[in-house]
Input
Amino acid sequence: MDVREQSISLPEWTQIIDEYYGTDEPIVNVHAGGGVYDAIFVGGGAAGRFGSSYLRAMGGRALVIDAWPFLGGTCPHQACVPHHLFSESAALLERERRLAGQLWFRQEGEIKASILDLVEVFRKGRNTAHAFMNWQTKDQLNVEYVLNAPATVVDPYTVEVAGMTFRTRNVVLGIGARQRPLQMPGADLRGIYDFASLVEDLDYEPSRCVILGGSKVAVEYGTFFQAAGCQTTILTRSPLLRTRSLHHVDEDIRRYVVGNMRGSGIEIVEGASPMSIEGNGRVQKVIAKDANGRAREYECDFVFNGTGEMPNSELARKWLGVKVGASGAVLADTRMRTSVDNVYAVGDLIGAPMEMFKARKCGMTAARNIMGDPYEFDFSEYPDFLHTTYEMTWVGLSEDEARQAYPNVTVIQMPPKSVNPADLPLPCAEGTMLYAFLKPELSGLQKCVIDGDTRKVVGFHHVGYGAKDAFQYLDYLMRRPEGITIDEMGQMNELFLNPEHFIQLSRLRAGNERLADL
Output
């Protein structure tokens, strides 16, 4: 289907995606006249879409190729968008269950949701985002693409797709990652899902779930399953929220979140080593050793693989011989250059963190360098968050890390360390006002970590709702060469009960010549 000269509306794009999904007919949006591209982006996910758009904005010519009939990749199709939908549902369900029988809330036994119904809600609506990206990239960003057709990279200057050959000065590889498969007896039984197969293949209502792994995905989906009424057990080798992919998680925050997960009814087994999955055609139980080496059985009708992802580097090695690290990630420098000249790699393909901000900025970084603007991207430090039924957000050092790095550390937090959370209806802000008045111990936790000598903030940590957007700006302010001090925080203007609470707390201490904990 050649769409170059066609004017296609968003509803029409949605219909095209629905019709072409699962077929092998390409969707072609290529300018006439041939010529050489400045870059061909193999993969139209976040890195490819943003990178190609940035390159085009700089005056270059970009082509994006993707095997799916849409741009946007796994985020809106299988990963972050459904996770946000499910997490929002979990927060609503958990609030109703915690406040059951009070005010207008139903009795606890009446509170249940269908996981399958929510999956169906997502399935029916997910192509709307893709339709917008196809339309915007063509009509507003003027970027060329070939969709619904897999690419073959012949060399750093030649790419083939759908019977066509394109010439380029550079190739940018953004072919993503996939779920790490389970390696144990019974891993081929029916009833085993991961984040992708859940939204593609689930066809029954689970009643009891065992999650293997302690990744972000394990935490986020586990809280959703439990909130929906599916009894959930998480088997994790490491202490929960202590995996390598979760840097700078503060211990007070971790204990608060994990404690509330257990309080919601989730069974969390740390130090567990799964041995096998058993069942008669379908999963019936998981066998795992506990921290003491004893084998235990966990009955279930649903197993969720939360062991993390692995980069899709096999084709990159086959096509171009790029170097790959021990974890399977393509090795790229801070300019996204691989070991092969004129070949760049971006996004999940180059390993952790497998986050949206990194993918988008990797694409932009590659584009800038291709267009002659030497730009480096260090993604070793970044703001982070995950969903339990709370939003958990953090940036910078934890309190323990700060005390190892600085001789004089001040901590301001709410509720203070010396106060029983059940005795204080603070912090109360967006999403936690009812908790503050009815169950104060559930109203959240905020912590700000300060180098007492320079008065600079070195870490922000928040459990509650509404803080995620602010943290991307706090990250920028904190990482400037001049940083941000507690005194500057205290001079800001807050909006009512601003959900971070750091402004109010900072103002209470900013006037002190010698800082003290609060």
